[in-house]
Amino acid sequence: MIAHLSTQQADFQEKLSKLLAWESVSNTDVAKTVDDIIANIRSTGDDALISYTNQFDKMSVNSMADLTIELSELKQAFDTLNDKEKTALQTAADRVRGYHQKQKQETWTYTEDNGTMLGQKITPLDRVGLYVPGGKAAYPSSVLMNAIPAKVAGVEELIMVVPTPNGITNQLVLAAAYISGVNKVFTVGGAQAIAALAYGTQAIPKVDKIVGPGNIYVATAKRAVFGQVGIDMIAGPSEILIICDGKTNPDWIAMDLFSQAEHDEDAQSILLCPDADFIKQVESSITKLLPTMDRKDIIATALKDRGALILTKDMDEAVTISNQIAPEHLELSVEDPQAMLDGIKHAGAIFMGRYTCESLGDYCAGPNHVLPTSGTARFSSPLGVYDFQKKSSLIMVSDEGANVLGEIAATLADGEGLQAHAQSARYRIK
Q1: Least buried of 122, 165, 247, 325, by fewest C-beta within 10 Å?
Q2: pLDDT in tens, 31-58
Q3: 329 has catalytic annotation
């Protein structure tokens, strides 16, 4: 059901590399389809968007007014939730907002002795597009995680697009949009929605950045429009890596592995542990618990194709392998996770201690659940307020400072053969 590996195997690194390998989110056929969709949206705007929506979402609408959700409808969606749902959604939103408020950066400056002022001006993006998946599943948590940091950053206008196959809307998603401060909602999806956000149509305004998860067509479209707009990331399948000392309840570990495997068949769940007996206990727990899962077929496929229980020499080696994998979610299910933390270099989010399951981070702990996947945690960070702010350098040179900097700049410009640069600086030298 799930692969067993040992770091003592001669071909361990080869097997690990094969396990971690993940093909690009796109292929030539998908790319061709996406390019055609983008071209049509750019040339005919709303008409193409309506046509694609009717085609792909099995709808029959005649205008963008039929694909627009008013703010009053968002409030109504929130008001119709039961008290338990309202409390859960509001509490999660408050926690996410509180965490991200600590990430907000402010403009700063300093002044040198000669009066020259240098610094950095921090400003929010003007308008951001948020893609929310529809169809098989609905993700109100994704709305919170993408919209709230944008609003904390000061983004003035947040445009949400969400496909509604057969015209069916999800009230929790709309309620999440309401409490997150989303400004406009359009019930469109797919590559056509990404193109509309990137280039603008008659109804949908052009945005500065697009964030949010989607299928292969959405991911390919985001890649295609990058440069015209900013994007958050091109995400691969969800993944979890658990480092355990063999003293956590094996049922807990099995269920934590399930929590990512149930996303889709390509998700990855890996356990690193130096205790061979405990690994057997976890496998027994997997066998026992899997039949009780609603998504057991998806979980089984993910565990079989991309999962692994890996026996390590010791905990230090487990940390070394973890850094090699650079997982999206890393659970340190150990007695003293703080002591282990210094050794962790690459991970999207680190869940510390036996009681910190990854699913808490997905919904309500506070930190963002939009995380780098497929080893990109080596150079990428979770989505945050900083993704919705940009920086402008501030330079105000005093007359005295121009004497010093002017001579330096002119000398370097001469060396590069740029006469106008040099002369421009020398004009300001007394």
Answers
A1: 247
A2: 999 999 999 999 999 999 999 999 999 9
A3: yes
